[in-house]
Design goal:
binds adenosine monophosphate; GMP Synthetase, Chain A, domain 3; binds methylmalonyl-coenzyme A; Rossmann fold; nine-stranded mixed β-sheet; 26 strands; 13 helices; alpha/beta; single chain
């Protein structure tokens, strides 16, 4: 297929990537990524140690230039989950920044260091020389995502899905080479890596990563010329908390071209506080690891009300379906159905999981998102919930209750465990663990259980609250009744 990054064909001195004080121009990026692409060309699949650094961005671009699928790894993943991802995806090598300390499960893999200063002068390779012959359906990424049960599944995203989704956003947002996107998102998920980092590069614009999220860093980036801000609702919630007492932040947000929120719903209260303080609206787009972007409020649509996720973007077919499988045509803002999608934006399959792939699709080839929504007369979707109560969205991360329960049950002091999500003003939902201890006189402490889960899975999966019970509520069949837990 044509290159994913046309701007690397005629490299300029324009900035492509900015991470703190470190900047790479398109010429420098073409040199560094082209050199690395030549080194890894011919490998079957590579893992990427996805720290929030320039190296991660260069590593991803290099692999895409070489046509080698990339498995981004959360550098905070605990050994248990990391071992699962490595066994499942079987990468040939790991790309990592020089000096990065890699944990035990990665020690067995050959390591290739990402040299962001490498250029044509340092090697005979040029981006053109390393241009891939990979086709549209060849995989670009394998991104791990949680389900309701079992360990995370690897969603295989073909190159055409990446191209199609990013180009659909060009249309929806009027996104051009003149835009600089700023964000502080992690680089091991679609939002931060595909949208926030590769998105600007596909347009020939600039990606400015803040390293760590904070109102001051956002203000400084927007003052320095960033035009678009990407964030999860937790980040906009924190900005909404700050706007009341931070005139510099207000001015910076007011001057941005586009404020975009996604990964979870942004509460109306936060929409309102930001709009009241800055005169600017935050627009929401709705996506999923398996589908990349499905819908968005369009930048040129000034009529949509806050709280909707807009309309299907170019190339996406979308329908709402009730429990009986009947497609609902109603555009009354009230009739609820599951969102099902079809289009060039979709993943091809879950790695090594043909049954899971089949289950996720209808017989006629639509992907079942599991998200429930209504549609108004203008076609704007409003997400009202999720089919699965065992999926929790916390801080914009999707987390399966089952994987946390399994980790908790591995603790010697835990006899029974159930995990639920509770509303949380900052995180959207907060993970709550309900524990029946082995010894009621000496139950494991909340911090100990949080550390246990963080160490095995990842810190964002740790319970924020632990509640102790003598027994879990069960129905006649012995199934845990989670709804009774909060009652
Ligand atoms: C705390 N920490 C621990 C422990 N407790 N580490 C180990 N063991 C423990 N017991 C550490 C954390 O690692 C972290 O370290 C620090 O304490 C704070 O962690 P935490 O409280 O979890 O962070 P937070 O402040 O609550 O984070 C909020 C956040 C984060 C920044 C908004 O949730 C976030 O980055 N969310 C983005 C999620 C995202 O990108 N989702 C996209 C997927 P330290 O202080 O050193 O950092 S969805 C997607 O891609 C689809 C396609 C879409 O639609 O977008
Ligand atoms: P993930 O699988 O981590 O990529 O998360 C995808 C899920 O995030 C979707 O299925 C939705 O439940 C949720 N999501 C993403 N964007 C939005 C949004 N703007 N509003 C509500 N939910 C969203």
């Amino acid at each position: 297929m044509a290159t994913l990054f046309p701007a690397l064909d005629t490299p300029s001195e324009r900035p492509a990537l900015r991470f703190g004080d470190r900047v790479l121009t398109y010429r420098e990026l073409a040199g560094a990524a082209g050199t690395l692409a030549a080194r890894i060309s011919g490998t079957r699949r590579v893992a990427l140690w996805a720290t929030p650094t320039l190296e991660t961005a260069v590593g991803a671009v290099a692999a895409l230039l070489a046509g080698v699928p990339v498995v981004p790894l959360n550098p905070r993943t605990g050994d248990g989950e990391l071992a699962h991802i490595l066994a499942d995806s079987a990468p040939d090598l790991v790309l990592a920044a020089p000096g990065a300390e890699l944990p035990e499960p990665l020690a067995v893999l050959p390591r290739t260091e990402i040299d962001v200063a490498a250029g044509p002068q340092a090697s005979a390779a040029s981006p053109a020389a390393s241009r891939t012959t990979a086709g549209d359906e060849d995989p670009a990424f394998v991104i791990y995502t949680s389900g309701t049960t079992g360990p995370p599944k690897g969603a295989v995203l073909p190159r055409r899905a990446v191209a199609a989704s990013l180009d659909a956003l060009e249309d929806a947002w009027g996104w051009t080479a003149a835009d600089t996107v700023t964000h502080a998102l992690p680089l091991f998920h679609v939002h931060g890596l595909v949208l926030g980092t590769l998105g600007p590069l596909r347009r020939g614009g600039c990606a400015h990563h803040l390293g760590r999220f904070g109102a001051e860093a956002v203000t400084a980036a927007l003052e320095a010329g960033a035009t678009m801000l990407f964030g999860v609702p937790t980040m906009y919630h924190r900005l909404a908390e700050a706007v009341g007492s931070d005139p510099a932040l207000v001015k910076a947000l007011a001057g941005a071209r586009l404020l975009v929120s996604g990964s979870a719903g942004l509460p109306l209260h936060d929409h309102k506080r930001i709009a009241a303080a800055t005169g600017r609206r935050v627009i929401e787009r709705y996506g999923m690891t398996e589908t990349l972007m499905n819908t968005s409020v369009r930048a040129d649509d000034h009529a949509s009300r806050p709280g909707t996720v807009g309309v299907p973007v170019l190339g996406v077919e979308l329908r709402l379906v009730d429990e009986t499988g009947t497609v609902q045509e109603a555009c009354d803002g009230e009739t609820i159905g599951e969102i099902q999608v079809r289009g060039t934006n979709l993943f091809s399959h879950y790695l090594n999981r043909p049954e899971a792939t089949a289950e996720a699709h209808t017989a006629d080839g639509w992907f079942r998102t599991g998200d429930m929504a209504t549609r108004d007369r203008a076609g704007h979707l409003r997400i009202v919930g999720r089919k699965a109560t065992d999926l929790i969205k916390s801080g914009g991360f999707k987390i399966g209750a089952g994987e946390i329960e399994n980790a908790l049950l591995d603790h010697p002091g835990v006899r029974e465990a159930a995990v639920t999500g509770e509303p949380d003003a900052d995180l959207g939902e907060r993970i709550v663990a309900w524990i029946v201890p082995v010894d009621p006189q000496a139950p494991p402490g909340a911090q100990e259980l949080a550390d246990h889960v963080a160490g095995r899975l990842a810190p964002h999966k740790r319970p924020r609250d632990v509640r102790y019970l003598d027994a879990l509520p069960r129905n006649d069949l012995g199934k845990i009744m989670k709804r009774a837990l909060h009652g």
